Amino acid sequence: QVQLVESGGGVVQPGRSLRLSCAASGFIFSDYAMHWVRQAPGKGLEWVAIISYDGKNKYYADSVKGRFTISRDNSKKTLFVQMNSLRDDDTAMYYCAKERVTVAGRGMDVWGKGTTVTVSS
Amino acid sequence: QSALTQPASVSGSPGQSITLSCTGTSSDVGSYNLVSWYQQHPGEAPKLMIYEASKRPSGVSNRFSGSKSGNTASLTISGLQAEDEADYYCCSYAGTSTYVFGSGTKVTVL
Fold first, then answer.
1. pLDDT value for A75
2. CB within 8 Å: B99 and A50
3. Cys-Cys link to B97, which of A54, A59, B15, B56 (CB 3.0-4.6 A)?
4. What does the alpha-carbon distance between residue A39 and residue A121 come to, in Å, rounded to a whole number?
5. Average pLDDT, stretch A35-60?
6. Is B13 part of the contact surface with chain A (CB cutoff 8 Å)?
7. pLDDT tens across B32-41, in order?
8. Could you say which residues from 15 to 34 on chain B have a Cβ atom under 8 Å away from some Cβ of chain A?
């Protein structure tokens, strides 16, 4: 079945780095744009980044621009986000999500269960 | 990239209809028909309920409907059921391949 599984979360000190992964299965991964979305404890959803189906185009929320880098390996059906210079307010559950169709903006129809990132000294 | 504005909470009795609003600006909701709505139960991942402002994915109950007028999108839940109690988030395309979520609405079934 169509599935996304995030991994790589953990506890990290402010200023350090972390790399999250999202393994996809059950669909043609290379056909779809992919997102990262996060949710701070007790807070709402926040869009983080999107990467085009071929990895050539990447866009970020202002809050992470210059610190986070989204990437993908279509041969391994895996999405990544490299998070550098982590701050306390990056503490959140991080979800990866698939675009519903091959054109972006039409809704995120498959979500992983998320991986938790805690930034704390 | 300010969050879209949603009421913090909306409640209704079983069988009633409720409408959730999502207010943005002319740069996001007002400029594109690319508004989606997500349902999130506690401890779970979000679930797509509406896309392109008014379209329903297969498998989503027809009790859920969406609309948009100007800078405001709306989600209506008809025949409210206990299982509809959850948080609901709108999301809009905001140009230059960026997106913005709403602040979220907690729906309570009385």
1. 98
2. yes
3. A59
4. 20
5. 97
6. no
7. 999 999 999 9
8. 32, 34
State the pairing for strand pair B72-77/A92-99: unpaired
Of A35, A107, A111, Cβ closest to residue B51: A107
Distance of CA A22 to the CA centre of its chain: 7
3-state secondary structure labels for all residues of A51-103: ECCCCCCEEECCCCCCCEEEEEECCCCEEEEEECCCCHHHCEEEEEEEECCCC
| Per-residue pLDDT reduced to its tens digit, B56-99 | 999 999 999 999 999 999 999 999 999 999 999 999 999 888 99
The size of chain B, in residues, is 110
**Residues A73-87 pLDDT 10s:** 999 999 999 999 999
Looking at chain B, which residue has its C-alpha nearest residue A63?
A: B1
Block residue for tokens 């391949």: B97
B85 contacts: CB under 8 Å, gap ≥ 6: B107, B108, B109
Spatial distance between the Cα atoms of B79 and B77, rounded to a whole number of angstroms: 7
pLDDT digits (tens, 9 = 90+) for A100-109: 988 888 899 9
**Minimum CA–CA partner of A114 in chain B:** B45
Tokens for A46, please give them.
């926040």
